Amino acid sequence: MDAKTYAQQAFDKAGTVGQVYWVACGGSVIDLYPAHCLVEQHSPSMESGIYTAAEFTALPPARLGEHSVVVTCSHSGGTRETVEACQLAAERGATVLAMTNNAGSRIDNGQWPCWIYQWEDATPQLEKPAGFTIVFAAELMRLQDGYQGEEALVRGIGQLDGIIAAAKPRVEAELGPRFVELCQSHDFLYILGSGPTFSQTYGFAICSLMEMQWQNCSYINSAEYFHGPFECTEEGVFYFLQKTGGATRHIDERAEDFLKTHTGDLMVLDSLDYGMDAVDADVRTYLDPIFFYEMNVSLRGVRGKAFDHSPEYRRYMGKVEY
Fold it and tell me: What is the mean pLDDT of residues 135-152?
């Protein structure tokens, strides 16, 4: 089934949808964030909440019930916290939709609908979790709210495949060497971003760099930069800014203007410089995160080769008890 069909099934089961909860861990919860933002900013009738799975079960929302739709994702299919979140949601009478790359895994157990996605380099963005959930959210809002932005979103997601294919070699060639140089000369960096793209600011830090490269770093929301973190800005401190082409671009620009005059070790990845200007401005806010994810993959790959550290290396994940 496609995203629209899953949305129709969820709508039919829940009746009037009161809440949509997006629940996962790590890289999977990052994929759900743009859809969460879309519902939060465009639905007058649905509350949207996004949770890391362990907190969803420890501190479940009071409104979780028969009018709730709970969308979860576990790439491996075996993430204990995410499976437990599905079970809790089902027990509360919510409509559950799970997603995984691993058919027949713990989360794909027949207790709730489960969409099995592909994760190959050539897989279209419409068929990956971020694109799928954006369309799912848009269709749910069309059914309940009469939302009219779905066609533009689908068209924009379709454009991403060509934009990303053209941008990746450019980013690797134009930004990769400088990124490697700064990683070699700095033990630590800060990563900034805003709006829906902040999900990929967070993801670049915790997944691509901390998990896959063992690079110490921290993520900062560009909107919060001037409310404390900018006091650490000085020469010799490495900052990487993910500059969105969406609705919060002015927030990133404010941070960029300050950083340019207070540190020489600033890198800026501007989505508009690498093709996202071709995407309708009305939907670019929600599609920029998909673009930034793919660029993050490219940059961690360049860093991994330079440091002889494959992104597949792990010290603890899946190797020790935790």
Answer: 98
What is the rounded average pLDDT of the residues 26-42? 97
Angle at 86 between CA 92 and CA 47, to 5 degrees: 65
What is the maximal distance between C-alpha atoms in the chain?
57
pLDDT tens-digit map of 189-227: 999 999 999 999 999 999 999 999 999 999 999 999 999
The CATH H-level superfamily of 3-148 is Glucose-6-phosphate isomerase like protein; domain 1 (3.40.50.10490)
pLDDT of residue 4: 97
* Within this chain, domains 3-148 and 184-306 share the same CATH topology: yes
**Mean pLDDT, range 84-106, rounded to an integer:** 98
- pLDDT of 3 > 90? The answer is yes
Three state DSSP letters for the chain: CCHHHHHHHHHHHHCCCCEEEEEECHHHHHHHHHHHHHHHHHCCCCEEEEEEHHHHHHCCCCCCCCCEEEEEECCCCCCHHHHHHHHHHHHCCCEEEEEECCCCCCCCCCCCCEEECCCCCCCCHHHCHHHHHHHHHHHHHHHHHCCCCHHHHHHHHHHHHHHHHHHHHHHHHHCHHHHHHHHHHCCEEEEEECHHHHHHHHHHHHHHHHHHHCCEEEEEECCCHHHCHHHHCCCCCEEEEEECCCCCHHHHHHHHHHHHCCCCCEEEEEHHHHCHHHCCHHHHHHHHHHHHHHHHHHHHHHHHHHCCCCCCCCCCCCCCCC
**Domain residue ranges of the chain, discontinuous segments joined by +:** 3-148, 184-306
Pick the CATH number of 184-306 from 3.40.30.10, 3.40.50.12570, 3.40.50.720, 1.10.10.10: 3.40.50.12570
| pLDDT tier, 1 (very low <50, low <70, confident <90, very high otherwise) | confident
